[in-house]
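Session log. Operator J.P. requested a structure for one protein chain; no other inputs attached. Running the standard single-chain path with token output.
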Amino acid sequence: MSTSRYSENKPRITTRTVVEMKDKGERITMLTAYDFTMARIMDQAGIDVILVGDSASNVMAGHETTLPITLDQMIYHTQCVVRAARHALVVADLPFMSYQVTDTGALESAGRMMKEAGVHAVKLEGGKVIVPAIKKIVDAGIPVMGHLGLTPQSIYKFGTYKVRATDNEEADQLVEDAYALQEAGCFAIVLEKIPASLAAKVTKGLSIPTIGIGAGPSCDGQVLVAHDMLGLNKDFSPRFIRRYADFENLMSDAVSRYHNDVKNGVFPNEKEQYE
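Structure written below.
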């Protein structure tokens, strides 16, 4: 079957579907997207979950961290992705300081994401400290995906992007946080850049799925930033990234050839004009 028509004959993935995939032992695929065109390609290729990540702050806006992107900007990117998704579940990050101030503020931010962008679920970073906010959001009928381990919105607290939870104390805390997020109503949890053995332990213990990024093969699913996976962001090369394409060189070559053709007067030719 041609992957270009894949999503038209597939039912919509829901949060319930994702949980059932864990129960059946079916791996979950997740990639980031921030615009209509890339989201459409991913959806038609059969990706289960599209994450509108606050990594848009890095790969789309050129910021050093995820912190500067605003809720309004995230809503815009999510609107673009939702218009393209016919099959995939669309999850959007709530950006820094859109849910940490008050639980009511967290609900308002999640509500805007759902009403204005049409997203299917939101993702929040953090453990027990954000459980009240998660409960408030879930109680309002908005699905929540958690995020533990390396949480980029806390990068200035950590001071480094190194692997998290390598010592017993932090590992134990992560396990406690994972169960707390499950109890609070999260339908899934992203585990980022933690030891594979710890991710396996958490995954086995939870009834909800885990989505790993730099967390080994035992998670119920995997997520990558699309720009990293496609070779569009070669400056960022941690060991957990597998390059499935070399779009940076491909695009550079195409742009150079276009530039030269225009300069040399060979584009457009007679077949590329109207009489």
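Operator note: The longest strand covers residues 144-149.
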